Amino acid sequence: MHPEPAAQPSRAAVTSTTLLEGLRDPDNRTVWRHYVERYRPLLVRYARKLGATGEEAEDLAQATLLAFSTAYRAGRYDRDRGRLSSWLFGIARNEVRAWGRARQKRRLQAGTTEGEERIADLEADDALQELWEAEWRDALLRECLRLLRRELQPQTLAAFERFALEERTAEEVARELGTSTSMVFSAKHRVLQRIRELMPLVEDTW
User: Fold this and answer.
1) What is the pTM of this model?
2) What range defines the domain where residue 154 resides?
3) ∠ CA(27), CA(41), CA(15), 5° rounding?
C-alpha cells in the first residue's frame, strides 16, 4: 500500500488573525464568508444544546457573529488579553441569556412554566462555559478531520469515525467496510496520531 501524503492544511491557515484583519472592512464578503463558515456551526450547536430550536439557534448564531464583528471594528477586542474563543463565548453567552429571558417572559405571559428549569440554567456561568469548551474542542476535532480528508484514504477515516467516535465494535466496523479488525485498530491509531500533530496548528489558527 502506498504511503498516504502529508496533509497540507491550507484552509486552516486562514488564521484568526487573517479573519480579524479582513473583518475591519465591512464590504469584504470573502472574509465574512470564511468567518461565518468557521464559527456558525459551532454557535448553532451550542445554542441547540441549550434548548434553542433550529431557527432560534441560527438566529442566535447570526446575532453573535454580528455582535462580535461590530465590537471588533469598534476596537473592543484585544487579542493580548485573551483568546478569540473566550471573547466569542462571552458574546454567545450574552445572546443566549437574552434569548432565554425573552422566552421565559413569553411563557409567563402565556401562563406556562414549561422549561423554566432550563431557562434558569442559562444563568450558571460554569455550566455555560463547560458546554462552550466542549463544543469548541469538538469544533477543533471536526476541523482536524476535515483536513485529514485530503490526506487519508476514505476507508481509514470511515473506520476511525465509526470505531472511535461512534463507539461501534471493531468487528462491526470491519464487517461494514469489508476489511479486517486489525485495519480498524490501525486506522484509529493513525488518525489519532495525526490529530495530535494537527491540533496545535488548528488551535493556533482558530
Assistant:
1) 0.78
2) 149-206
3) 55
